[in-house]
Amino acid sequence: MTFESKIRPIQWVDGHSRMIDQTVIPYEYKYVDITTGDQMFHAIRDMIVRGAPAIGIAGAQGIVLYAKEGKDKYDNINDFKQWLLEKADYMSTSRPTAVNLMWACGEQKKVIMNSTSDKEGLIKELTEKAVEIEFDDIERCKKIGDYGAEVVPKGATILTHCNAGALATGGYGTALGVVRSAYANDNTIQVFADETRPRQQGARLTTFELAMDGIPVTLITDGMCSYFMSKGMINMVVVGADRIAANGDTANKIGTYTVAIAAKYHNIPFYIAAPLSTIDTSIKSGKEIPIEERSHEEVTHINGKRICAEGVNIINPGFDVTPHELIAGIITEKGILRPDYNKSIAEVFKQS
User: What residue spans of the chain are helical by DSSP H?
Assistant: First the structure.
């Protein structure tokens, strides 16, 4: 059984992209229209849309927008396609860590290279692929949720970090997809959400969407998880992912590694929930995952107000890497992968 979320963070509507502006939640809940490729690039970079699967969808839609803009610039179809391939490569650089973005842009590059249509036909093919990626993500997340629900104990309290919910995907969620599917079968399930500094995605986004869907949620600060684990108040951890290496090492929002260490110490299972498109089999381990360094102001300011002294040195990595040894399972749309991840990941890709 699945739980239908009310949230659709990004959709293709009337020839352009419409998305929820996630930078203003929970103060406002509004949609913005994205009508050019450059607007999409900045929407991804500035985190108007965020979450690995969602920015993959956004990247695919952004390439359609570039195609619509550029169709009158080139008479020759081959020149048009070459320009589009360059724009697809550019779009994939808007954020460096989440591999779903590179995957989705790669899917659109395949459409461009394989198309035998004229410019209008190519735009139609790119649009169809972008819409396919959007709806396919929702179905993949529902499968992730249903597989994950199988390992959720009755009445469990699930800790999650950052936001891997409907807002981060096509509209159901990876980690929160597990929560939604589990809650559909057992409404005694509840969630503890880490605040997730510095951008507070747990506080702003996870609590917002769970409250909207009527799923019980308790907000805690990032430093509190060990305390509640030691009290027996957390039964399992489920988080999303931005990139998973071939050996299972997983990049996710900064602070995830700390939660995984605490869970291991307290013998609490720690799960990753992500579609196969988040697994990057081209890299052997997490050491090869590029980690985005973000603005210092994310750390020094909250709601535009400085919270520390002038001149303080700041380092602000957006992600950390959880070693595969700390991960009990990777919940995908094809089932739950277990250690040895080199073997289980290779096997699931053979079958796909």
Answer: 37-45, 52-70, 77-91, 99-114, 119-149, 175-185, 201, 207-212, 225-230, 256-265, 297-300, 341-351
Tally: H helices and E strands in the chain: 12, 16
User: What is the crossing angle of helices 52-70 and 119-149, to 10°?
Assistant: 170
Q: Where are the alpha helices (DSSP H) in 94-216?
A: 99-114, 119-149, 175-185, 201, 207-212
Catalytic residues: 242
What do you get for the CA distance between the two ends of the chain, in Å? 24
pLDDT tens-digit series, residues 181-230: 999 999 999 999 999 999 999 999 999 999 999 999 999 999 999 999 99
Report the C-alpha gap between 227 and 11 in whole angstroms. 40
pTM score over 0.85: yes
Spell out the SS3 assignment of 196-243. Answer: CCCCCHHHHHHHHHHHHCCCCEEEECHHHHHHHHHCCCCCEEEECCCE
Q: 347: which 2 tokens?
A: 């096997």
Q: What is the pLDDT of residues 312-329, one digit of tens each?
A: 999 999 999 999 999 999
**Rounded Cα gap, residues 127 and 144, in angstroms:** 26
In a shared domain, residues 253 and 339? yes
The helix/strand/coil state of 321 is strand
Q: Which residues contact 297 (CB under 8 A, 6 or more apart)?
A: none
Q: Residue 173's closest CA among 44, 51, 277? A: 51
Q: Are residues 114 and 134 in the same domain?
A: yes
C-alpha span between 132 and 2 (Å, rounded): 21
Same domain, 56 and 196: no
Chain centre distance of CA 329: 18
Q: How far apart are CA 270 and CA 237, in angstroms?
A: 5
Domain enclosing residue 137, as ranges: 10-141
User: Are 327 and 207 part of one and the same domain?
Assistant: yes
Phi, psi of 326 (to 5 degrees): -95, 0
Same domain assignment for residues 22 and 168: no
Based on the domain organization, do 95 and 152 belong to the same domain? no
